């Protein structure tokens, strides 16, 4: 009976997929006419404008004049909208990721006194508990656990070794060149070493697999990059809670040893539960599946932060969504091509400009930062060189051109960095307990990471986009 239900669900999903494919094909045909394209785009943005205006009106009616056009809360909306619009325009003109324009929007907003998120630390901290659930959940829905099982050595080596080396090098450089305490150095390193494969995945997907089927580039980059991300989120949360927790030393050491394992265990339990809940014959199975993993991830992140186990939920979200996607695939949903993936992509498209714009407002431009930025550039060159050399070494079974391609994709730093870097500042402001030196370390950490985002993201994107076809297609012709 259970098998019949799964077959029925699979058939329904296949029919829905075919209908969606036909709609996409028909839409593609229509878009060949430039007038139709302009009309569709106009209606699309008009719809978004109406929804945005109604949302603002709802907030104004509910919370009063602070949400008026001249109220203090209205600035939050304006900066987010400008970041979104400038990102679209920037991408259209340069093909570079829109997050760069959003980050610059936030920097300029702070510089001209329009918005300073340091005045809203509670709101910023609340949002930064939502961002990781969406971006980590979005990425892990594309993981192929069978691929990870069959290629675990390469995935683990590529995801762990460059990350570990870069964390250590960053901690040493920040300690001896900038005077960071060791804990602050490793806190910086745990963020700094995260690779943002989401920036280059669209380009990687164009290359697919090798003709001899020996390598699946999107899965290698996605799963190894996810492992890298899980380490960053987990270890950062571990160090962060250790630094800012008032618990006893024994408890903090105990928690440090169990954080990652607890995250994996929670993710496995919740992901396997998604196999049974909701029932595949439920009329609202699609909506309930999305809510099951999304609300579960949000609760886990808020709850673990409240009890001082930061970092556990990030790992749990990665494992949970990957496990759930595996079970859903057996019932007809394709990996990364299903309603859950679409929902997460829509949510992230709304969160991305907000995240980078608000992060940019923490970046203070003044004369005292010159030495830090110059030293930071040297640290970036050292750390990036070390990371890429390690990356090339661990790709033992790839050709030289393929190693260069992997190195190109391993350059960008952006998403995890933007999510995590202001948390120390927010925490010190909310608790009002930090010393002058601690706030200086938090500010310097922020500046170093923003600098790394602005430099590495366009370089990694352009190299992957332009060198990728040459590096891989040359190899493909040799294997044909």
What's this, in brief?
Keywords: Membrane, Transmembrane, Transmembrane helix. The chain is an all-alpha fold and 480 residues long. It has helices at residues 2-30, 34-63, 74-94, 99-111, 121-127, 131-140, 145-150, 152-178, 182-192, 201-205, 217-244, 249-273, 285-306, 312-330, 339-360, 370-394, 400-409, 415-420, 423-431, 436-479.
Give the proportion of residues in helices: over 70%
Q: DSSP strand (E) fraction?
A: under 5%
Return Rg in Å: 23 Å
Global mean pLDDT: 86
For the sheet with most strands, the description reads: none
The tally of beta strands, per DSSP, is: 0
Count of alpha and pi helical runs: 20
Stated plainly, the CATH topology of the largest domain is called Na+/H+ antiporter like fold
CATH class of the largest domain: Mainly Alpha
The unreliable regions are: 1-31, 474-480
């Amino acid at each position: 009976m259970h098998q019949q239900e799964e077959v029925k669900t699979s058939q329904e999903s296949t029919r829905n997929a075919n209908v969606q494919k036909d709609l996409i094909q028909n839409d593609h045909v229509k878009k060949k006419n430039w007038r139709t394209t302009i009309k569709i785009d106009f209606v699309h943005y008009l719809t978004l404008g109406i929804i945005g205006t109604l949302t603002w009106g709802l907030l104004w009616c509910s919370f009063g004049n602070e949400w008026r056009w001249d109220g203090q809360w209205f600035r939050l909306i304006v900066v987010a909208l400008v970041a979104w619009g400038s990102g679209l325009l920037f991408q259209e003109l340069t093909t570079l990721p829109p997050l760069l324009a959003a980050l610059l929007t936030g920097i300029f907003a702070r510089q001209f006194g329009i918005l300073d998120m340091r005045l809203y630390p509670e709101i910023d901290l609340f949002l930064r508990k939502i961002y990781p659930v969406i971006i980590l959940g979005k990425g892990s829905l594309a993981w192929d656990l069978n691929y990870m099982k069959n290629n675990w050595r390469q995935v683990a080596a590529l995801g762990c070794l460059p990350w570990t080396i870069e964390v250590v090098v960053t901690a040493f450089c920040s300690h001896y060149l900038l005077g960071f305490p060791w804990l602050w150095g490793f806190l910086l390193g745990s963020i700094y070493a995260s690779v943002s494969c989401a920036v280059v995945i669209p380009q990687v997907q164009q290359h697919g697999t090798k003709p001899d089927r020996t390598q699946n580039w999107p899965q290698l980059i996605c799963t190894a990059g996810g492992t890298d991300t899980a380490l960053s989120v987990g270890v950062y949360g571990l160090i962060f809670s250790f630094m800012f927790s008032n618990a006893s030393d024994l408890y903090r050491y105990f928690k440090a040893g169990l954080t990652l394992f607890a995250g994996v265990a929670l993710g496995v339990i919740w992901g396997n539960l998604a196999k049974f809940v909701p029932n595949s014959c439920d009329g609202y199975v699609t909506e309930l599946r999305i809510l099951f993993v999304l609300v579960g991830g949000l609760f886990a992140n808020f709850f673990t932060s409240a009890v001082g186990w930061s970092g556990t939920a990030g790992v749990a979200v990665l494992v949970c969504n990957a496990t759930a996607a595996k079970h859903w695939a057996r019932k007809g949903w394709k990996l990364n091509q299903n309603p859950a993936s679409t929902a997460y992509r829509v949510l992230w498209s709304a969160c991305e400009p907000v995240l980078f714009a608000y992060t940019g407002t923490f970046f203070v431009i003044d004369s005292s930062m010159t030495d830090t930025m110059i030293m930071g550039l040297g640290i970036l060159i050292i750390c990036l060189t070390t990371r890429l050399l390690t990356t090339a070494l661990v790709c033992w079974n790839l050709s030289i051109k393929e190693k260069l391609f992997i190195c190109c994709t391993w350059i960008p730093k952006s998403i995890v960095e933007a999510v995590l870097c202001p948390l120390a500042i927010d925490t010190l402001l909310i608790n009002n307990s930090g010393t002058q030196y601690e706030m200086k370390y938090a500010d310097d950490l922020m500046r170093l990471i923003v600098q790394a985002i602005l430099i590495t993201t366009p370089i990694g994107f352009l190299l992957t986009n332009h060198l990728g076809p040459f590096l891989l297609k040359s190899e493909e012709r040799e294997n044909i």
